[in-house]
Write a structure and sequence with these properties.
- The complex is a heterodimer of chains A (204) and B (168).
- Chain A has seven helices and five strands, in the order αβββαααααβαβ.
- By secondary structure, chain A is α/β, with parallel strands linked by helices.
- Chain A has one domain.
- In chain A, strands 1-5-4-2-3 form a five-stranded mixed beta sheet, covered by helices on one side.
- In chain A, 33% of the residues are buried.
- Chain B has a domain of 102 residues: Nucleotidyltransferase, domain 5, CATH 3.30.420.
- Classes of the chains: A alpha/beta (204), B alpha/beta (168).
- At the A-B interface, helix 1, strand 1, strand 4, helix 7 and strand 5 of A face helix 1, strand 1 and helix 3 of B.
- Strand 5 of chain A pairs antiparallel with strand 1 of chain B.
């Protein structure tokens, strides 16, 4: 009786194709991920169970911590337009180069008078402690009010969309500080806010 | 044509890719996890309009269906039902107020008075941002539909009570 011949195959599989797929996925994720911007004012936000994502566009974020306020508006075009409007308001002439540089700066907190100097600083110097002192919110010189107002105007011009206001407050910040900022916004009839929080698992 | 002969054994051109694939997937996993975590969540809140000329801004509340929660110092709250001064507020820690809200809602719903159960949140100068976020979150979890934030009209007798109890 003839014996059935079983062909022995090698157990080594070709991993090249799998490696290709993995590399492709890796490249995709690296490219689509947005790099985390360095923040001049570190705050630890409280946590909540809300499941609402902070919008990536048409949004301005006010960071509140240590009694200071920092400002950021989303979108490079909107930022550039906001700076132009601020320039008109405070009679400061910004060169196109300065506008370009400003459009890539994320969160900042300097008075308008120091803005020109701040924009022309090298990126590393901007993050040094003591450089950014927060945006003035006194009733006599309420620059925050103008920033928010003009950012809304710029968002409406560039994106034809209303702008949302997010408040990123530090957990330990006392309520009166938050109230002062919210009151500034309510004067402009901004009554809806987004409070930035960390995600927390829901009980029950 | 002359062939280049290096002589000796022919080395296999096959390289073992397994460790490389392992590494790749590790990196992919890492990137997937980190990107989804970093997106911050937001809480949507609405504050009452401050325009006094707008007649629609005055909202009448039923005393028997209104619970006022005052946020005070060191994570403490004081709450009472109905009008201020009518009943002495109860002092509790913020993490335990949940039960009081549930009980009050049950009583209010059973009373048969028309209208929704309303929670009025009054953050005072003693509270911090976290307290405010926590209470709003609690109300969201408990599905209290009508909630108002009032930080302008903290009444004198409320202040006096909180001072007396040392939470303002």
């Amino acid at each position: 009786m003839p014996r059935i011949k079983v062909k022995r195959t090698s157990t080594v599989t070709d991993m090249t194709a799998m490696c290709d797929v993995a590399a492709l996925l890796l490249t995709f994720f690296i490219l689509t991920a947005t790099a985390k911007q360095p923040e001049p004012l570190a705050v630890s936000t409280p946590s909540s169970t809300y499941e609402f994502k902070v919008p990536a566009e048409n949004n301005a974020t006010l960071t509140i911590g240590q009694g200071k306020v920092f400002f950021e508006v989303a979108g490079q075009k909107v930022r550039a337009r906001t700076l132009e409007l601020i320039g008109e308001q405070y009679k400061i002439k910004f060169t196109p180069d300065e506008v370009n540089r400003f459009s890539v700066i994320g969160t900042f907190g300097v008075p308008v008078a120091d803005l020109k100097k701040f924009i022309n600083m090298p990126g590393g110097d901007r993050m040094k402690p003591g450089v950014q002192t927060g945006i003035p919110t006194d009733s006599t010189d309420n620059q925050l009010n103008n920033w928010v107002l003009l950012a809304r105007k710029a968002t409406a011009e560039v994106n034809q969309q209303p702008m949302r206001v997010s408040i990123k407050g530090d957990s330990k910040e006392e309520y009166p500080v938050i109230k002062k900022i919210v009151d500034v916004l309510q004067k402009q009839k901004v009554n809806k806010f987004l409070l930035v929080t960390n995600a927390e698992a829901r009980r029950k | 044509m002359a062939e280049l002969n290096t002589g000796g054994k022919k080395a296999t051109p096959r390289v073992d890719m397994t460790p490389m694939v392992d590494l790749m997937f590790l990196l992919v996993t890492f990137f997937i996890l980190t990107t989804s975590i970093s997106t911050p969540q937001a809480m949507d809140i609405v504050k009452p309009d401050k325009d006094d000329n707008n007649k629609d801004n005055k909202l009448e509340l039923k005393a028997s269906k209104t619970m006022t929660i005052l946020l005070g110092k060191s994570d403490k709250v004081a709450w009472y039902m109905g009008e201020a001064g009518a009943s002495a507020p109860t002092i509790e820690s913020l993490s335990q107020v949940e039960k009081a809200i549930i009980d009050n809602r049950k009583v209010a719903d059973a009373s048969g008075v028309k209208g929704d159960f309303v929670v009025l949140v009054k953050p005072t100068s003693g509270s911090n941002f976290k307290n405010f976020v926590d209470i709003m979150d609690e109300l969201e979890i408990l599905k209290v539909k009508v909630r108002q934030i009032d930080d302008d009209n903290i009444l004198d007798n409320e202040k006096a009570f909180m001072k007396e109890k040392g939470i303002l």
